[in-house]
Each structure stands twice: as structure tokens, then as C-alpha cells.
Write a structure and sequence with these properties.
single chain; 5 helices; elongated
């Protein structure tokens, strides 16, 4: 097995640890939406979005939205345009 498939499987395992709501927030962040808009679209408070965002950044071991986008595209091989709409 090559390093690429091992890295992809490792990344998929981290992704699997996210809750469905964290995944919703993840895709919205990757699409460049601010927390206030994400909150409105998901019908939750902005603080709830902030908490989900912090949790998913911690779980995926990235520091910001740019690293999060790179993680999604490069490690999981999921183009942002294929993300489910929030």
C-alpha cells in the first residue's frame, strides 16, 4: 500500500469522528461562509457554530479555515463544490 492511500485512510478516520453537525459547519467554513451566516442557515446560534468549528478544528488537528480547506481537498479528496449545502 502506498503512502497516499495510507494518508487518505488516516484522514478519513479523523473525518469519521466528526458529528453530522460538525460536518455541516465544516463544509460551510470551507465554502468561506462567516459564522453568522452559517448560524442562520443551520438555525442555531452563532456561539453554537463557533463551538462546532472549534471542535472540528481540534479533531482534525488544523488551526484555521485555510488549513481546514487544504485538509478537505488534499487529504480527503473532496472538492468543496461537492459538499452538501447547509
Amino acid at each position: 500500500m502506498n503512502d497516499m492511500s495510507l494518508n487518505a485512510r488516516f484522514a478519513q478516520a479523523f473525518y469519521a469522528k466528526l458529528t453530522p453537525r460538525e460536518r455541516d459547519v465544516l463544509y460551510a467554513v470551507v465554502m468561506g461562509k462567516p459564522n453568522k451566516i452559517i448560524a442562520s442557515e443551520l438555525g442555531v446560534s452563532q456561539r453554537t457554530v463557533e463551538a462546532h468549528r472549534a471542535s472540528l478544528l481540534r479533531k482534525l488537528q488544523v488551526r484555521n479555515a485555510v488549513e481546514l480547506s487544504r485538509y478537505i481537498v488534499l487529504r480527503l479528496h473532496i472538492p468543496p463544490e461537492l459538499a452538501p449545502s447547509a
